[in-house]
Amino acid sequence: MTDRPSLQDDAAFFAARGFGQKIGFGDRPALIVIDYMKAFTDDTMPLGANLDREIAETNRLIDAAHRHNIPVIFTVVAYDEDGFKDAGLWALKQKGVHTLKAGTDGVTLDPRVHREPRDIVLLKKYASSFYGTDLISRLNSRHIDTLIVTGCTTSGCVRATSVDAVQMGIRPIIAREAVGDRSRAAHEQSLFDLDQKYADVLSVDEIITHIDAHYAKQHNQPPRAR
Question: Superfamily assignment of 25-218 in CATH?
């Protein structure tokens, strides 16, 4: 019996087949912060995980976005129908759905995130931030061509949102240190697969450097020292 291929083996195989090309940034980015709400960021709750580092890294991106007037969109998940009927069949897969009841503390944004009043808060019911929401209309009305993706979970809502973004003609750029998951294995495999087929996975430093340089060029100013 042969050993299972490692991610390094997979990376070489995918590279030989021409996967993992770069989509690159467009001209008008937006930042989406997916589901950093208490039900997911409190690791004592059924759906929660410790995302302290990921929130800190996301805040660096939020601050950069605010600095350059880049739209920032927060998503939350909440259900208000009796028996969680508005969760559909998805409610059958996870008992923790009871922590996502509209009006409860679990569905409020984690107070650590650097939200400002001008930011958008988008309610969704399913994994993708596009499914059943007006996200694409909000992006189109602002002529957004690039979506910088942060939040949780990497293997669930981050993945679903990124796949839908590229299918709708929006460039998904996933911030590696600013996305998290309950499972390290699922996190790493999802980032690898997304980077190979659907999105660009970049470090937070790389993204901020690009944003600062892009907007400095627009205003004929040198990039900010960080």
Answer: Isochorismatase-like (3.40.50.850)
Adjacent-strand bridge partners of 34? 75, 151
Residue carrying structure tokens 């980015």? 29
Residues carrying an active site annotation: 157
pLDDT in tens, 97-151: 999 999 999 999 999 999 999 999 999 999 999 999 999 999 999 999 999 999 9
Q: Helix crossing, 204-218 with 52-67: angle to 10°?
A: 0
Contact by Cβ (8 Å): 190, 158: yes
Span 13-39, pLDDT tens digits: 888 888 889 999 999 999 999 999 999
Task: Give the closest residue to 96 by CA, choosing from 75, 79, 74.
Answer: 79
> In DSSP terms, which residues pair with 16 in a beta bridge?
none
Whole-model pTM: value is 0.92
Measured distance CA(194)–CA(68) in Å, rounded: 27
| Segments making up each domain of the chain, as ranges | 25-218
Q: Which residue's entry shows tokens 């998503």?
A: 75
